[in-house]
# Entry
Amino acid sequence: MKITNAETFVVGTPRPHRGGRYWVFVKLTTDNDIVGIGEAYKIPFHPTTAARMIEDVCETYVVDSDPFQIERLWRSVYYGEGYESHDHHQHPDHAVMGVLSAIEMACWDIVGKALDQPVYNLLGGKYNERVRSYTYLWPAPSDTTRRPTHTDAEAASASAAAHVAEGFTALKFDPLIDVMGSEDPREPPLDRLDNAEAVVRAVRETVGNKADILIGTHGQSTTSGTIRFARRIEKYDPLWFEEPVPPENRDEMARVAQMTSIPVASGERLATKFEFRELLEKQAAAILQMALGRVGGILEAKKIAGMAEAYYAQIAPHLYCGPIEAAANIQVDVCSPNCLIQESIGRFDGFHAEILEKPIQWEDGYIIAPTEPGLGVVLNEEVARAHAYR
# Structure
């Protein structure tokens, strides 16, 4: 079997743009007409440039290759083997990793379809019949005030109540998001710490023990500011503290982990087993959040999950993009004994359902393991083309 064609889709999402303003997909087709779909996560260029990058890599490495030879193809792209213009680059950036991740998951989709098996059966088999999911605090339908649900205690409370009523048992929010920006991390002022604590308290009082609360910061605080905030909210028993400091400095993240009883989660801005190794060795995070559209794809995520088992660490794959990466995440979740929980975009309804021929199954706070071959989903190309990003 050989891959004979590669095509990209840049899809513009309708408002309110849950999962991002656009999604970048790649479609690989084989000489016996099997189709595989993959998705890249946040390649740091204009999305049409990202699509052209995927096409370039496919022209160079993927077309005429065997989709079963995933390990060999992965290393060829990673190390730049046989490409004279940038031969042996050896340390690709996150843009290349996003491209590689999309191609890799499309290959797994082809392999699963060729063997008539879901991908998880090719990676150890079904361990989890269903996977617990969590969602961001989106505005409650009854709340027409447009108050920010992450930083307004009343709005956060209303949103939490609405999501628990839908069946969610875990909710994530960033109560310090209003001090976030592109600057270096900074010390949160006392009034913002007071407000952030009030939001956490309001959500806990609303959900009681019916739901876990997940503090989803974005590395906007200094180490000292993060520790101060963690001490304030430990009594509300969050399930995790996500990216408490920027992910580049694993030593400082480890210092946070040592100073709080809240488990630290991190990983959406990291790629490959090599960067996750540091998190584990330094005991900087107990929960690993690989973004499969950036980390290197499905097999790389499975390797990281295996590494994590040796440290009694758990995985909770990150998701803030489209349903193809979501489907890849679910395949890894289902075959990983140390899967804690999966991020979801609501109940995978709305546009996430519309762009698939069959929506991802979600029921009572859980994602149901798919039984279809490959990634378990099929892209509705007519919908994708009708929503081309402009």
